[in-house]
What does this fold into?
Amino acid sequence: MTLEVILFILFGLICIISAVLMVTRPNPIISALFLVLNFCSLAGLYLILNAQFIAVAQVIVYAGAIMVFFLFVIMLLNPEKEKRFLEHKPKLKIFTIVVVALVLIQLIYMIFLAHPNDSMTNKVSESVNAGTIESIGREMFTNYVLPFEAAGYLLLAATIGALVLAKKKFE
Amino acid sequence: MQIPIEYYLVLSAFMFSVGIVGVLTRRNAIIVFMSVELMLNSANLALVTFSSYLGDTTGQLFVFFVMAVAAAEAAVGLAIIIAIFRNKLTVNIDEINILKW
It folds into this structure.
């Protein structure tokens, strides 16, 4: 077992366990904190995959900015606790199990049907250059400069929209 | 030893399913929103996996744009939740039904 495999198992387990706990805990604040843990372990997985820039952006943007915003809104609204997970809801339980089983079986079947490993000629250790900030920046400001500008406008529009929505009561 | 790409993809599929469970079962609008973020992140994991197994930067650029869109979506969505809470004093999506006829 190399270090890569050990780290993959470690971060993968943290990822799975924190995702399940995030969905099943009744208290929203605990859910949000488990989601932060999930995002941090995803950043670890990105580092194993040689995607350094995305790993750092994951911690700063998701675990930092977005989750602080979620925690701020949870504490501002202070919603009441829900009952225990799926208590006294037999219909919803059956519906959820059927939908999730269908989606999961279909996804895993397609993953193993396609044999993606056969067409991957590169090794992950050879793709170090793909994840550096130099190569991402070069792509972003040459081939993808128009989507980059569009993302800027989208964020501006979202800022203005959030201000307008949260500013005053609409009757 | 190289980790097979299927492991990452199955992990991503599992996280996506957990997100679906959250969207379908939880009744708190904020937690439904956090489950949507979890599903976006599972898609990001698949994109980064393919990007680094192919040695191509484009997948990671897409993840960057997904992050920008997720940030915009979180800002607008939480502002809508705050506006609804001002009118109805609840974030339970079973009680927010003024658009239902």
User: Anything to note?
Assistant: Residues 88 and 98 of chain B are 10 Å apart (CA to CA). Residues 5-88 of chain B form a domain with the Helix Hairpins fold (CATH 1.10.287.3510). The mean pLDDT of chain B is 90. Chain B has one domain: 5-88.
